[in-house]
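Incident log, support desk, overnight shift.

02:14 A customer reports that sequence design results differ from what the structure should imply. Their input is reproduced verbatim below. On-call engineer (initials T.W.) acknowledged and began investigating.
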């Protein structure tokens, strides 16, 4: 007889207030999560709360930025025991730095909906918490996963693995995350969709999807790598929405390869990911599975990751909010 092991139990809700409803997680969901979006507009404060089960390995992250006359704050927290995602963050205390040393950092802030991210008319905001840096996030996809007018955010944030520029692109998508630690350092106004970085001479395989649609052998193409994205990447894992095996191939910066951001933007859990140096070297994953490779190559080229975070969800919520407020 095989004993049945009960899954993790988490609080689960979607709305403007905390919840007491719970759900039992799927086998591949190893964490409980709480995502909160708070909007401060003059004397009015409103919040949106999302709780539930999630795939494992996610760190805690936060972003704040200006959208018109509003301050938008997004944060996500994770934990790994039953019903551990109880309660919500005290966002007002976080933004007003109550009981904390003040952060002297001033950052440019914008969203694409403001039409100010690509010129010199940026507004500035003061970061509230000591651990925050200035951030500049670009993200767009061929399938318009994000609203077409929302592909750039600048502001303050506390993002994991953001010491060097983090970049990934293939034929389907382009993602670039930059953090810096001096006032007004996030002053880049380049429109990476209209004017992408220059080719760097590296060629990699490119695909996104599963073994029958998007990343089948017939779907795999070649892409010329650009800018800091000088390595080839391939990854496979369990898709957070479908629970099915999914894969991705493309070009990545070395810093991206050492981070969990493939999981962030591609929504993959229990991920196997590797980066390699050399044209078309990202050819180990076929039909979502790892094919046998020489031991010597594996020891030299493989960089495996088993972590995941949801900045993609935070960014998407920001995009949706900015579109509504514009």
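02:41 Re-run completed on a clean worker. Output:
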């Amino acid at each position: 007889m095989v004993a049945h092991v009960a899954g993790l139990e988490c609080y689960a809700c979607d709305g403007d207030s905390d919840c007491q409803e719970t759900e039992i997680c799927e086998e591949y969901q190893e964490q409980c999560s709480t995502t909160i979006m708070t909007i401060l507009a003059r004397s009015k404060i409103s919040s949106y709360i999302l709780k539930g089960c999630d795939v494992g390995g996610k760190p805690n992250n936060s972003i704040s930025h200006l959208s018109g006359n509003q301050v938008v704050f997004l944060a996500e927290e994770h934990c790994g025991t039953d019903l551990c995602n109880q309660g919500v963050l005290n966002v007002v205390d976080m933004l007003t730095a109550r009981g904390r040393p003040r952060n002297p950092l001033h950052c440019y802030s914008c969203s694409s909906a403001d039409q100010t991210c690509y010129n010199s008319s940026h507004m500035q905001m003061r970061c509230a918490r000591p651990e925050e840096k200035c951030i500049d996030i670009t993200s767009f996809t061929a399938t318009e996963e994000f609203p077409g007018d929302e592909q750039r955010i600048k502001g303050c944030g506390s993002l994991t693995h953001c010491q060097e520029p983090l970049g990934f692109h293939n034929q389907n998508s382009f993602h670039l995350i930059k953090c810096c630690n001096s006032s007004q350092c996030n002053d880049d106004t380049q429109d990476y969709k209209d004017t992408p970085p220059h080719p760097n001479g590296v060629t990699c395989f490119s695909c996104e999807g599963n073994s029958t649609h998007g990343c089948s052998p017939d779907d795999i193409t070649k892409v010329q790598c650009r800018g800091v994205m000088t390595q080839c990447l391939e990854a496979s894992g369990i898709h957070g929405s479908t629970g099915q095996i999914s894969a991705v191939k493309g070009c990545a910066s070395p810093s991206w390869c050492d981070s969990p951001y493939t999981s962030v933007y591609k929504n993959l859990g229990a991920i196997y990911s590797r980066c390699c140096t050399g044209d078309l070297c990202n050819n180990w994953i076929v039909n979502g599975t790892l094919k046998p490779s020489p031991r010597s190559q594996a020891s030299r080229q493989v960089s495996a990751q088993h972590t995941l975070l949801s900045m993609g969800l935070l960014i998407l919520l920001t995009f949706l909010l900015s579109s509504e407020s514009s």
